[in-house]
C-alpha cells in the first residue's frame, strides 16, 4: 500500500496550476517506477507502469555497462514523465526514498547552492536530478513511497519491467 503521509504525498510544484497546466477534471495518471543494477554498480534497468483509467502503458530500458541503482531509480520516473504527451495530474509511486526525498525535499536546496550538498560536495547524478526536475515542471506531480517487494501489484510489475530492461540491455550489448 502506498505510504500517504504528508511528506510522501507532497506535490513537486508549488503554487496554482499554470494556464497550460493539467486539466483538473480528468483522471490522474498513476505511475509506478523501479530501477536497479546487478551488481551495484553494474548493468542496470528501469521500469515504469503508467495507468489512466483503462489505459495502461509499460515502459522499460537499461544500461549494459556500469551504472548504479540510484541512476536507474531516477531514470524510471524521468522516462515515464517525459512520455506523457500533455500536462496532467500524476500520482507517482516509487520504492526509492532517495528519489522521493530528493525531488520533494532536497532538490530546491541543491539548486540554490549551485548543485552542492549541505556538506558543500557536488550532488551526485546532477544530470538526472535536473532532468527529473524539468519533467516534473510540466505536470502536477504528487509523490508516494511504496515499500518494495511488499506485494503491491503495480510496484512488483515495475520491478519486473526494470529486470527486463536490464536483461535486454545486457543481451543487446553482446
UniProtKB/TrEMBL annotation:
Protein name: Ribonuclease H
Record flagged with keyword Cytoplasm: yes
Record Gene3D superfamilies: Ribonuclease H-like superfamily/Ribonuclease H
Keywords: Cytoplasm, Endonuclease, Hydrolase, Magnesium, Metal-binding, Nuclease
One GO cellular component, as annotated: cytoplasm
Family: Belongs to the RNase H family.
Biological function: Endonuclease that specifically degrades the RNA of RNA-DNA hybrids.
Gene Ontology terms: biological process: DNA replication, removal of RNA primer
Source organism of this protein record: Aeromicrobium chenweiae
Cofactor(s) required, per the database record: Mg(2+)
PROSITE patterns reported in the protein's UniProt record: RNASE_H_1
Subcellular location per the Swiss-Prot or TrEMBL entry: Cytoplasm
Region (Disordered): 1-27
Chief site of localization: cytoplasm
Comp. bias regions, Basic and acidic residues: 1-13
Assembly, per entry: Monomer.
EC number: 3.1.26.4
NCBIfam families from the UniProt entry: PRK00203.1
Chain residues that bind Mg(2+) 1: 34, 73, 95
Domain of life: Bacteria
Coiled coil among keywords: no
Catalytic activity: Endonucleolytic cleavage to 5'-phosphomonoester
Chain positions recorded as Mg(2+) 2 binding sites: 34, 159
